[in-house]
Amino acid sequence: MTRSRTAATFSPPVMEARRWLDGVTHPADRPLINVSQAAPVAPPPHALRAALADIVMQDSDAHLYGPVLGLPALRDEIAQQWTRAYGGSIDPGQVGITSGCNQAFAAVIAALCDQDDEVILPVPYYFNHRMWLDMSGVRTIPLTCGADMVPDAAAAASLITDRTRAIVLVSPNNPCGVEYPAATLRAFLDLARARGIALIVDETYRDFDSRTGAPHDLFSDPHWDDTLIQLYSFSKAYRLTGHRVGAVLTNPGLMAEIEKFLDTVAICPNQIGQRAALWGMQNLSQWLAGERDEILDRRAAITDHFPALAAQGWKLLGVGAYFAYLEHPFAVSSHDLARRLVTDAGILLLPGTMFMPEGDTAGESQLRIAFANIDRAGIATLFDRLAKVAV
Fold it and tell me: Which of 3, 139, 243, 324 has the fewest CB atoms within 10 Å of its CB?
């Protein structure tokens, strides 16, 4: 039997970590703290759920096939709001709707790459990006970040070959949480344009960026779509995780290639979810601002409580959006430590080895905390438990 595409990559890390819970019981006075996954666990706000109910009952078209590239009204709303937020000019024809941001990435890679092409990923990387490249027969070229966990365009330049098709950046970053400086993103755009490759910027967590105003000026470039491809997700902003709505922004020519992929995979994005995303964009700006304030407060709680760990040799490598990325001080692999934390401390988190290519030992001492689903009190408890870990 020949080797399949799926056999070319590893098992989903979040699913692997969840299996560590099998057979483990947690006492009532020390319940499990699950900081393994970033997806919101709460449902959409009540107003959006009421709008969803109305959509289900009153909008007959929401139950039918729709345009492959998405609801025209949603594409138009994104174009308008993005133009105001980033500056420059974005046309609805440069916007496509997908079944979540992961599908947006998959569609873009399918449209850009052939077998044995190469894509540069800064490491630590978002593991689903690596998994899709593996399954697509595309080589992942790791770009090592510096101590600040921010990639360097000059270092990336030395990795580009005649098989390179794109560089992928995630900002605010998953897994590290860091917000890439505007100058960094501009340097990568200039590099990608000069070398004739695409720059894919995944901004799934843009709504929780701590900076005011636009996080970069890439869309103000009148020719942005000759190089830049932006990805986005509605899952985090409006808690629409189960409805699977994402977006991709690029030039109409590449969008036509993306449409081929989307038509054969899902035919159209979730019709109900798209309408929910549109309603959210038009009605929930104040609510979303409150959600951002809460996430920023939890980020502040991470830095407020970290000195207790720093005193024991831990390091905070990055924090922002939904994530904190830590270096532990123990002479044990982060994979083994993460498994032990389930039983010894009642904590489920992901080891840095899940975000690193084979042979990169940096992940052995790193851990990711996805803190968006625990409040200040939960963060205090988490750090108290971590401070008591002895290996």
Answer: 3
- Residue 351 contacts residue 360 (beta carbons within 8 Å): no
pLDDT digits (tens, 9 = 90+) for 23-74: 899 999 999 999 999 888 899 999 999 999 999 999 999 999 999 999 999 9
Q: Are residues 225 and 308 in the same domain?
A: no
Q: Are residues 276 and 234 part of one domain?
A: yes
Task: Output the DSSP codes for 195-264.
Answer: HT-EEEEE-TTGGG-SSSS-S--GGGSTTGGGTEEEEEESHHHH--GGG--EEEE--HHHHHHHHHHHHH
Contact 142, 124 (CB under 8 A): no
In the DSSP assignment, the letter for residue 348 is: E
Residue 99 is predicted with a pLDDT of 97
Give the global pTM. 0.95
Please tell me whether residues 94 and 139 are part of one structural domain.
Answer: yes
Q: pLDDT value at position 2?
A: 63
Whether 57 is in a domain gets the answer no
In this structure, the answer to whether residues 97 and 237 fall within a common structural domain is: yes
38 and 73 inside one domain: no
Gap between the Cα atoms of 90 and 96, Å rounded: 12
Q: Which of 284, 316, 349 is the last residue of a domain?
A: 284
Contact 199, 188 (CB under 8 A): yes
> Looking at residues 135-159, what average pLDDT do you find?
97
Average pLDDT over residues 154-166: 98
**Residue that is last in its domain, among 214, 249, 284:** 284
In sequence order, the 6+-apart residues with CB closer than 8 A to the CB of 18 are 36, 348
Q: Which residue range forms the structural domain that includes residue 306? A: 6-43+287-387
Please indicate, yes or no, whether residues 79 and 112 belong to a single structural domain of this protein.
yes
The answer as to whether 166 is a domain residue is yes
Write down how long the chain is: 391
Q: What is the pLDDT of residues 13-28, one digit of tens each?
A: 989 999 999 989 999 9
d(CA 57, CA 34): 36
The rounded mean pLDDT for the chain is: 96
> Per-residue pLDDT tens for 164-201?
999 999 999 999 999 999 999 999 999 999 999 999 99
Q: Which SS3 state, helix, strand or coil, does residue 366 take?
A: strand
Q: What is the pLDDT of residue 1?
A: 53
In the chain, the number of structural domains is: 2
